[in-house]
Amino acid sequence: MNGLLQIAIKLLANDRGKFFTLIVGITFAVFLMMQMTAVFSGVMYRSGATIYNVGAQMWVMDPSVNVQTDSIPLPDYILDAVKSMNGVKYAIPFFSSGGLVKLADGRYQSATIIGLDDATLYGRPHMLSGNLYGIYNNDAYIIVKDAEYPKFNNPTIGTTFEVNDHRGVIVGTAKALVGGLFGTPTLYTTYTRAIADLPTSRFTTSYILVEPKKISDIAAIKARVNALGYVALTQDEFISKNKNYYLFKTGLGMNVMIMTLVSFIVGLSIAGQTFYTFVLENVEEFGALKAIGAKKNELITMIFFQSSVVGFLGYGFGILLSSLVIGLAKLRLPEYAALVTLQNLVISFVMVLIIILFSSYLGIRKVIHIDPFDIFRG
Questions:
Q1: Closest CA to 367 of 299, 269, 272
Q2: Which of 27, 102, 252, 301 could share a disulfide with 318, CB 3.0–4.6 Å?
């Protein structure tokens, strides 16, 4: 069998044009599939930026919340009720909302404003410059230094601005674990200042962040919160809820799926047609092998081996090209949200396997029906 596989490789590499075309076709298909799925993964990851950055084990919210940006205020008594529940180590209020900021040059810029609990500053970002406790100063804000930072005219410590006609002062810059998705800079301040500077409804708590005493207490806390008519989710559950909304309730998931399928069909058609043409041009060689005693299953193995070599080379080159493009794009475009994950790699690998099987099937159908007598008679 090793000898037959060597012959299969020689037959494949002998026609360099078709060999190259097969690899390029699959490479291009994998590249497109990786790009689309990587962009989708990056968008989903960044859409949950606040959830990742805060890092709370549990989030209590209104049942109508679909995504992290749905800041539906909770009544004050819910916070007191959650604090008194068995199994709760502590519970703190959390404020998140959008605000319109007037910069020093008179230009307006929308921003995401997060109010941290005054007593604990739970969910605070990692400081790059300035003092975290400067957030307690009058009018103090901390700005996240990410891709959206220049939209604030690259502020430094002491830069002033206005939020809803209230004065604000930058007292530090910080680094967030995950950059935001929606193109707005992020400002951190205290909970008290956030609800004072921004227009709010009668209730002001966007979410309640809960730390359970033990992991086993989570189920009981959920049940008690549900009895109050509200929802308690773990961090992973909230992230999943956030992703499912964009995937199933917006056009984003469908659009990405369609483009991924188009990429798959392109690779399938190019590889299938080219490989079938390759088999037709080498039908005499396969017939000669059959005449000298090669069994049907050995010929099938040869065909499958040839398509596998082409498929896995194309997969490798496609992943390499996609990773290079994503890496270069992120160097030039900090807002670029593509993210290569294990799930993306598996999806592309499965689709390449289907392309390999389809191409092999087309070739096998032709080879197993070869009559050596017809070959030699011709």
A1: 299
A2: 27
